[in-house]
């Protein structure tokens, strides 16, 4: 039986790669190749950027903001309607639990609804000035062609975080999905046609970072880059953008502290710790991968965590009773195992898991793993593992928790578990992180900005301000 073959999506049409080459995409649970994906290069990027530019200067640029909102609303409805199918494709590529992916894709529809509503609510300002005889106001104008480059962990969601505000702002886009998870974006692209978007507004070029990502970032007609992924690629993109003074939104890694005080509701905190690190098998930028626990409850927390997580069911991610699925890619699987070895060499004590499970699926499973006896200066505490590996670090008091929490190059998120409002606010104010949760973990919304301090990124996604990542400000002076 021949496998499905996915071409690029350029100017509203399926376009074979200029190279004529395709690469395989695999199901990480079964290990089977299930589709072939167009292997793009600079020529495909040129075609996609030209199509986007033509749409921007032509039919899309001529639409009112209200009309853009209407099209986005129609798209949002289509996303919700097609969520099961999109989720199935995405799940096949990255091995996440079906339940997680379906919920994520449905919610992505809500994202588009939110930005559909914002499209015609970006209001200019009339500005009183110190100069006589003038009337001055601002205009917010779409930047133009935006490059959207995304990773494999939540491909459609992370694309929507960029695409929805970009389109609401009036921009056009060329999307480069991860080479590990391209198919869902290509299926999603078909919905733009159905929703009635003019051709060229959204284009998708698939392939590898060096062959598609780099020429896309360097392209002179690309005005802004929206990127989520690893720090290494993020830095390369930032450097390349700097060469042409392009703007960027970078959403990079994290090593977020999940801080548990001795006055916390421990039942709730345990659930928060577990979902914080083990949801999506830990392959999430906001994972609560460092648990900081007050010394007096250290042993009790570990006892409860080991008991709770020890029964987690690993296996087929499409089954509703599975709690932990496979690692999404082979390189990531190797990387997580490397970190488990490093943690042991550093002297951390593995109290749960710590092994691969070759007996499950195609063997790309790693047990949920908990390390105690971790010093915050160890590599296992400092570096992003992006897998189901938790380190537990004791602390004495608030000052100690804040010091350890901030003793990290990252600053994406963090959480505080306590019944004291004063303590919650005191610690929240002092944590250097873009998101702080109090007595919960991992909540995000289209209404609320998300992004990183320090090495976790630049700019913010979600929320009404995110639309300004895709807008330039023009001041207009009129003599009266
Ligand atoms: P990556 O950063 O290597 O790749 C992300 C995207 O960038 C992919 O589409 C890739 O093809 C592209 N890319 C790579 N190099 C590029 C370049 N020089 N120019 C333009 N585009 C380029 O991430 P990954 O391979 O998906 O995962 C690697 C690591 O990134 C993971 O181990 C994890 O630590 C981290 N990660 C972070 C997040 C997050 O949400 N912050 C998500 C996924 C992965």
Quick take:
Belongs to the aldehyde dehydrogenase family. Helices cover 38% and strands 21% of the residues.
Secondary-structure blueprint:
Layout: E1 5-6, E2 8-10, E3 13-15, E4 22-26, E5 33-38, H1 42-57, H2 65-81, H3 83-94, H4 98-118, E6 134-142, E7 145-149, H5 155-169, E8 172-176, H6 183-195, E9 202-204, H7 209-218, E10 222-228, H8 231-243, E11 247-251, E12 257-260, H9 266-278, E13 290-294, H10 298-309, H11 330-346, E14 349-352, E15 369-372, H12 379-382, E16 389-395, H13 398-406, E17 410-411, E18 413-417, H14 421-430, E19 435-438, E20 453-454, E21 457-458, E22 471-479
Helix pairs in contact: 1-7, 2-4, 2-5, 2-6, 3-4, 3-6, 4-5, 7-8, 9-10
The structure holds nicotinamide-adenine-dinucleotide.
What does this structure look like?
- It is an enzyme of class 1 (oxidoreductase).
- Residues 19-476 form the Aldehyde dehydrogenase domain.
- It is a single chain.
- With 480 residues, the protein is α/β, with parallel strands linked by helices.
- 38% of the residues lie in helices and 21% in strands.
- The strands form 6 sheets. A 7-stranded mixed sheet has the order 14-15-16-13-12-18-19, with helices on both faces.
- Helix 2 (65-81) runs antiparallel to helix 4 (98-118).
- Bound molecules: nicotinamide-adenine-dinucleotide (NAD).
- Nicotinamide-adenine-dinucleotide binds next to helix 7, helix 8 and helix 11.
Descriptors:
binds nicotinamide-adenine-dinucleotide; 14 helices; aldehyde dehydrogenase (NAD+) activity; Aldehyde Dehydrogenase, Chain A, domain 2; alpha/beta; Aldehyde Dehydrogenase, Chain A, domain 1; Ald_DH_CS_GLU; Aldehyde_DH_dom; globular; 480 residues; six-stranded mixed beta sheet
């Amino acid at each position: 039986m021949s496998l499905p073959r996915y071409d690029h999506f350029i100017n509203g049409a399926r376009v074979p790669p200029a190279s004529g080459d395709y690469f395989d995409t695999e199901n990480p649970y079964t290990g089977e190749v299930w589709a072939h994906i167009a292997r793009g290069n600079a020529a495909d990027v040129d075609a996609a950027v030209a199509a986007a530019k033509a749409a921007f200067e032509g039919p899309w640029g001529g639409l009112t903001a209200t009309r853009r909102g209407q099209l986005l609303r129609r798209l949002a409805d289509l996303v919700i309607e097609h969520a099961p199918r999109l989720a199935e494709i995405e799940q096949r590529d990255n091995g996440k639990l079906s339940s997680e992916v379906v919920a994520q894709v449905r919610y992505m529809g809500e994202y588009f609804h939110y930005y559909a509503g914002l499209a015609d609510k970006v209001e200019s300002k009339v500005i009183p000035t110190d100069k006589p005889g003038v009337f001055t106001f601002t205009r917010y104008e779409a930047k133009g062609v935006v490059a959207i480059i995304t990773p494999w962990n939540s491909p459609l969601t992370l694309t929507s975080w960029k695409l929805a505000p970009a389109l609401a702002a009036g921009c056009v886009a060329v999307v480069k999905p991860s080479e590990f998870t391209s198919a869902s974006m290509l299926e999603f692209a078909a919905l733009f046609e159905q929703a009635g978007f003019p051709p060229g507004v959204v284009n998708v070029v698939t392939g590898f970072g060096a062959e598609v990502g780099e020429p896309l970032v360097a392209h002179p007609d690309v005005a802004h880059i929206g990127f989520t992924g690893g720090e290494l690629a993020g830095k390369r993109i930032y450097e390349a953008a700097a060469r042409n003074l392009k703007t960027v939104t970078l959403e990079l890694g994290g090593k977020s502290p999940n801080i548990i005080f001795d006055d916390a509701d421990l039942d709730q905190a345990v659930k928060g710790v577990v979902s914080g690190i083990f949801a999506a098998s830990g392959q999430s930028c906001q994972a609560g991968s460092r648990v900081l626990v007050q010394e007096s409850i250290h042993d009790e927390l570990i006892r409860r965590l080991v008991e709770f997580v020890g029964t987690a069911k690993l296996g087929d991610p499409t089954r509703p009773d599975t709690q932990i699925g496979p690692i999404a890619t082979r390189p990531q699987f190797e990387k997580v195992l490397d970190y488990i070895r490093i943690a042991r060499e550093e002297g951390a004590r593995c109290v749960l898991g710590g092994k691969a499970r070759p007996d499950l699926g195609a063997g790309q499973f790693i047990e949920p793993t908990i390390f105690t006896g971790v010093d915050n200066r160890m590599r296992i505490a400092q570096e992003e593992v992006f897998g189901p590996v938790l380190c537990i670090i004791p602390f004495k008091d608030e000052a100690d928790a804040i010091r350890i929490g901030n003793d990290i190059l990252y600053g994406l998120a963090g959480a505080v578990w306590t019944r004291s409002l004063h303590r919650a606010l005191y610690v929240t104010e002092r944590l250097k992180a873009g998101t702080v949760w109090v007595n919960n973990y991992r909540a995000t919304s289209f209404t609320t900005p998300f992004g990183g301090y320090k090495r976790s990124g630049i700019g913010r996604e979600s929320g009404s301000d995110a639309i300004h990542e895709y807008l330039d400000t023009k001041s207009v002076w009129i003599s009266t």
